[in-house]
Target: Secreted protein with PEP-CTERM sorting signal
Amino acid sequence: MLRPRLLPTLIATVFASAMPQAFAAVELIAMGSLSGAATDKSGLGYQLENGTAANLLGGMGSGLAWAGGNTFLALPDRGPNALAFNPLVDDTSSYIPRFHTVTMELKANSAGAGLPFVLTPTLQSSTLLYNSTALNYGSGALGTGTVAGKSYSLGNGAPIVNTADKFYFSGRSDNFAPGSSSNALNARLDPEAIRVSNDGKSVFISDEYGPYIYQFDRASGQRTRVFELPASFAINHLSAQGTVEIASNAGSGRITNKGMEGLAITPDGKTLVGFMQSPLAQDGGDGGRYNRIVKIDIASGATSQYAYDNQIGGKNFNSSEILALNEHQFLVLERDGKGLGADNSAATKQLRLVDLNGATEVSGIADLRKQSGVALKTTQFLDIRAMLNAAGISDANIPAKLEGIAFGADVMVNGVLKHTLYLANDNDFLGAITPAGGGTASQYNNQFYVFSYEGSDFVPQAIAASVPEPSSHALMLAGLALLIGLGAHGRQQPGR
Model:
């Protein structure tokens, strides 16, 4: 429900007293959505093991990156696993990780009521992620067995469109080789954040499985570089089942499904800043207070670490995304898991401001709980929940998993040039199936919210002109290759 045009001014007034003066004039100026039930532009024309179409658009808000102008890159996570089909692999499938190029058109709202702008997101292309040399795929053995008297079987985990020089990554949880999770040849990939290089030719993507940070060619989707993270972030006992993996690595390393969740790039394009979703096991694990921020020099690969205090109002939160405001200040998205998609009401959705200037480097600290005075403190930048409430969106209808944030191009609002901040949700592909929590599938669409604000400390990233997208002819060739692949490999069957 949208209020009259006076609404944004009222919202800004409400938040002015609670925020740093430089960021006082924050307004919600637009909202838009894309159906998760739509087909993407990957060209894939087959079904996954769980019966879901391989080209399902599904969710696309695990990560969001500005690519200049009105162009954004939107990132799904490891694919549709909300449908129960094989608990031995946590219902994951051979969904190929990808990023989508989306245009976000903002037009002044001429209706005389509602928000100042109308947002129209349009899908332009879908880029699949692959490696040029062979990856480690599961044989299917880990997905074959009996659970609660029911038998399950699963085939090889390699995507059927693999070729001699294209080995696609996959969301399937058994696609790994024995050993450390830091093995960059493991095919399993759970993308959670994306950023664009300043020259516009590469994307950097963080992954929860490793955790890893990879660099991919933006035009083709080929992996070009692996950034090595500290060994203390990895685990050594891998499993296709998350609960088993967590229990087997209780002493150290990232928590399963709570790895490298966020990623920022500094405006000068020289530094990546990665963010763990929850504390490492040695720092208290899931539910702990101190996450680790990892700073990476892109040229050398050198890393440094900083402790982040994720506590708000006496409660510890998991962190969903990090975004560079300038070279040393960052916005961190903190949220609970409540709201639309989780069958309950949202309570905490905030952007927190953190400054790395003068921060203590903590690489040598094995357990952050045993040190005092080293954690970075935060201040509230924006109470997202309160602002969406003020726009007529109830707690039950705020997406549970708000995860993607990106700055966009400046826009003129009531005669004043302001910065824009885009926010997206991860719908876990629920928009394409009957929601378990009730309601209609359309309620679980990919949602986008646009905020404007005035801030003197903001430094925009200087991104070169957009990389040309694949032509229609190239897409036709991709479709032909797919048909050949289907004929050669046959269709994967759902597990029984």
Summary: The first strand starts at residue 27 and ends at 34. Confidence is low (pLDDT under 50) at residues 1-23, 471-478, 480-496.
